[in-house]
C-alpha cells in the first residue's frame, strides 16, 4: 500500500504520449483578471501596469486520483483504524462516499487479526481527545462536505450509543455518509432522526444505504416528512440494521408495505413502531409486524387510509399476547376492530382511540364485554361518536384495573353513563372530561359520589355544567380526591363550588381557571373546609375574586402553599401581597399578572425575610415602576425567573440594570 501512496515516477501508470487529450483546452489555464483564485504578495509599486500570463507545464494529477473506485475501495478497507478512515473522508466527496459503502464485515483489519499478526489498538480515551474535528465526528473539505455534527446537532449518549438528529437543510446524503464513517469507531450510531428535507440535495436512498452499511448498531430510526426515500432505502436498513428496535415513519408517502415486510422479517427486536400519514402503508404491514416481531410492545397507526379491520384483526390475533401500548387515530376501521381488541388484547395496558368515525356504540360495548382487557390501565378516547352511556359502562365492567381515563369530544355521553362508569370502574384514580357538553351538574357530582379511589378530576370546556337550585341528596364524602381542575366552564359558579367544598375536604391542588362566575362567597367554603392544606392554588382568570379570599387562603394554608397563581384577578391589590409576605413560608412561585399591584406591594415582598421566591410574574402590572428596582434586586437573590412584560412603568434603563444585576435569572421584559 505504501508503494501506491509514495509513487513518484511515471513508468508504471503512464501509457506514453501527451497526458492531456487536448493541450489547447482553455480549462487547463488559470483565469485572468480580478477573479484569479491565486494569491500573490503585493509587489513594489511599478511604473507600468500590464496583464500577466501564467505559462509552463500543467500540474499533473495526483497518482492516487487516477485509480478507479474499485482500487480505492480495496485501499480504504485496509486502513488500520477509524481515525485513518476519518482522515481520508476529508479529502473529497468521492472518497467519503466510497468509505461510506464499506460494511463492517468488509474491513480488512478483522482478517489481519485472525491471521495472527498483531492488531494495533488505540486508546478510546485518546481518540476522544485527539482533535476538535474528531470529537465532533466531522469532516470539512473543499467539496463542501459539511461537519457531520456541528454545534446545532444534538449528540447524546444513550446506552453507550450515539444519537443524531438532522433537520431541514442539514439532512443530506453527504451528512449521513459522514455520520456512517465517523461514528463507526466511537461506539456506533444508536439513534437517528431525520425531519423534513429540502427537495434539492436532500436525503435519498443513497444516504440510508450509507447508514445501513456503516451503522449496524442502529437501534432507533425516525423519518419525518421525507418523500425522496422509498422502499429501496428501507430494504437497505432491513439488511444492514438488524438490531433495530424502534421505527417511526411520518408522512413518508413513497414507502409501501413491501419495505415494512422486509423490516419485520429482518428485525425481530422491534419493540415500538409508529406509522403516521403514510398513504401507501396498509393491512399487509400490520399483519407482518404481528407475525414476525415477537417483541413488539407498542404500535401507533395514525391517518393511514389503507389500514382497515383486516390489518388490525391480523395484528392483534398474532401479537395480542405481547402488545402493551396501542394508539389508533383516523383509520377506516369499524366495530369489528374494537371487538378484536377487546378479545385479544390480553397484555394491553394503554389504549388510545382518536377520530374513529365509523365506530359505533356497539364497538365499545363489544370491546368491554370481550374480557380481554383485564390489564388495561389507561384509556383515552377523543372525537369518537360511538362513545355512549352503554359502551362506557361496559368498559368500566370489563376493565377491572382501569386507573386513568380521558374522554374528549364525546357528544353522546350523558350524566347517567358517567355515574355508572364511576361506580363500575372500581380502580379509577384519574378522570379527565373535555368538551363533553351533555355532562351537567348532576353528572359532575355523580362522579364524586360514586368514585371510591378517585384522586384527580379534570373538567375542561364542558358547557353543560351550570348552577341549579336543586337540593342534592346527602352523599358520602370523596376523601380520596387530591387534585381538582375546572377550566373554562362558564356555568360553574358559587353553588357548585360550595358543594365541592363539602364533599372534598382533602384537596391539595386546586385549579379554577377562567371561572368568571365565582366570587369570594363561593370560594370561601371550599378554602375553609380543606383539612390538609393546599399546596398549589391556581385562580387565573377568576376576575371577581378580591383580597378577602386571598387573605383567607394565605392565612389558613400559608405553611403549606408552594404555588399561587392570581393571573388576571384585577381586584387583587397590594393588600394581598402584604398578607403573602407575612404568612407564606414555602411559597416558591407567585403570579400576579394583570393585578392592581404597585411598588408598595413589591416592597412588601422584598421585606419578607422568610420568603424564598423562585418565579415571580408581574406581567401587565402597569403601576409597577422604576421605584421597585431595589426591591426586585433583593428578590432576585433567589429568583430564577422574572416576568415584567408589559410593565410600562419600568423603563428600558431599569430593565438593563436588572439584567446586569440578576445575571442568573431569566428575565422576560
Automatic annotation (TrEMBL):
InterPro entries assigned to the protein according to its UniProt record, in alphabetical order: F-box-like_dom_sf, F-box_dom, FBXL15_LRR, Leu-rich_rpt_Cys-con_subtyp, LRR_dom_sf
Chief location: nucleus
Metabolic or biological pathway: Protein modification; protein ubiquitination
Organism name: Forsythia ovata
Domain F-box/LRR-repeat protein 15-like leucin rich repeat: from-to ranges: 199-410, 518-659
Annotated coiled-coil segments of the chain: none
Stretches the record annotates as Disordered: 113-162
Record keyword Nucleus present: yes
Protein's recorded name: EIN3-binding F-box protein 1
GO cellular component: nucleus
Residue ranges constituting the F-box domain according to the UniProt record: 64-99
The organism's place on the tree of life at top rank: Eukaryota
Keywords annotated in UniProt: Ethylene signaling pathway, Nucleus, Ubl conjugation pathway
Location in the cell: Nucleus
